[in-house]
Design goal:
It contains no helices and 21 strands. By secondary structure, the protein is mainly β. β7 and β8 (175-186) form a beta hairpin.
């Protein structure tokens, strides 16, 4: 009747970041400042849940009870210092730059975050063709931020309850229409001009869809329409002077769209997955900045799609362990996007990914390559700050997975 599952993860990330900034230009000579940041992140996450399968009359239940815990420590230090000037006429690059040692004028901080969640969910099967899901979750979010320069502490204590509901109907012949409702919670750091901590950012989603998986076939199609709304989004405080950057929680972002997906075992050992998302409405619906109202959310494409081909590892003979090679390749399309104020439109881009894997007994070794041809493209544009973020380029990820 009962089973228990537990997963845990520990991660450490360290990064050093150096760059130069032009402060002013006089007679073709650009005066510059050097910046250097050190960032460290340590994260521990554990999730434990108990599952029970039981019946009450004509209703079959699968009940889930669980809790999870996150403990994250994040620290960053920004340093600044003098840098050699750049002659824009002769472009005298290659000058030596001394690594800055003085703390930069903005905040450098140590941040400790703890989040505990308790959740319960029940899946009910009844009337032979109906399946319903009802669940709830309670989160407690605590954050302590220490300003390294002043040693001042800012503490945040937030909590929220979120729920989910879903209903699926087995219409026969592999057809499953469904409807669902979900809520989300995200702890929000910081305070307003009066020192009051912000409330959590919340979200809700309505979804209506259908899945079609014909019997005795290796095909599955799914289609869904959705309505998303994110509330308590941080926006600029309208009382700010030119030297202030306080925020208030009056923002809201909404999104409506359509998702399509097909999974097909086209040939023996060849799988095809195709997906398409259309979001005609992804916009700012509430904001203190009137120029943003009704604007498309920055850097979110209206159209996105993917096509993936994958060869499954050879089937294991009876009594034998799976062993063999597998390959995959595919395309991703990221459609055109707008910047923050919708004044700059970024063009769409097509990227190529690839996969090689080898299964030997209970082990799987895999090499994933994202952006195989190292295509450079702009991820996001922020007109107000006059900068763009470009792609990180080709990325390799090598994994070894053991199952038992």
């Amino acid at each position: 009747t009962w089973s228990v599952t537990q997963s845990a993860r520990h991660s450490d990330i360290s990064a050093d970041f150096k760059y130069l900034s032009i402060d002013s230009v006089t007679d073709g000579i650009a005066k510059r400042t050097a910046y250097y940041s050190q960032t460290d992140l340590s994260s521990n996450v554990i999730d434990t849940h108990f599952q029970a399968k039981w019946s009450s009359g004509a209703v079959d239940h699968t009940t889930l009870l669980g809790f999870d815990y996150q403990n994250n420590e994040y620290g960053y230090i920004w340093r600044s210092g003098l840098a050699p000037s750049l002659n824009l006429n002769s472009l005298n690059y290659g000058q030596g730059v001394t690594t800055p040692t003085a703390l930069a004028s903005w905040t450098s901080a140590d941040i400790k975050i703890k989040q505990t969640g308790f959740y319960v969910q029940d899946q009910l099967k009844f009337g032979q063709r109906w399946t319903a899901i009802a669940g709830g979750r309670y989160d407690q979010f605590d954050q302590d931020t220490r300003n390294i320069k002043t040693n001042a502490h800012t503490r945040i204590d937030q909590s929220a309850f979120t729920g989910r509901l879903g209903l699926v109907y087995d219409a026969g012949d592999g057809l499953f229409p469904y409807i669902s409702y979900d809520e989300s919670f995200e702890g929000q750091a910081g305070t307003n001009r009066h020192g009051k901590a912000f409330d959590p950012t919340t979200g809700r989603q309505y979804e209506l869809g259908v899945q079609y998986a014909p019997e005795n076939s290796n095909i599955r199609y799914s289609a869904a329409i959705f309505d998303l709304r994110q509330q308590n989004v941080l926006t600029s405080d309208p009382l700010n002077t030119s030297n202030e950057s306080f925020q208030v929680q009056t923002g809201e972002v909404t999104a409506q769209g359509l998702e399509l997906e097909a999974n097909i075992a086209a040939l023996k050992g060849l799988n095809i997955t195709a997906a398409y998302t259309y979001m005609p409405k992804h916009k700012v619906t509430r904001n203190n900045d009137a120029a943003l109202l009704g604007k498309t959310t920055a850097n979110v494409p209206r159209h996105s799609a993917s096509l993936w081909f994958d060869t499954a590892a050879p089937e294991a003979m009876k009594g034998e362990r799976i062993k063999g090679w597998g390959f995959g390749a595919g395309l991703r399309y990221i459609g055109s996007r707008y910047d923050y104020y919708n004044t700059v439109k970024l063009g769409g881009v097509v990227l190529t990914d690839a996969l090689i894997r080898y299964d030997a007994g209970g082990w799987r070794y895999a090499l994933n390559v994202h952006n195989l041809f190292d295509k450079e493209y702009v991820i996001g544009s922020w007109t107000g700050d006059n900068y763009e973020t470009v792609s990180p380029g080709r990325t390799f990820r090598l994994t070894a997975t053991r199952r038992w």
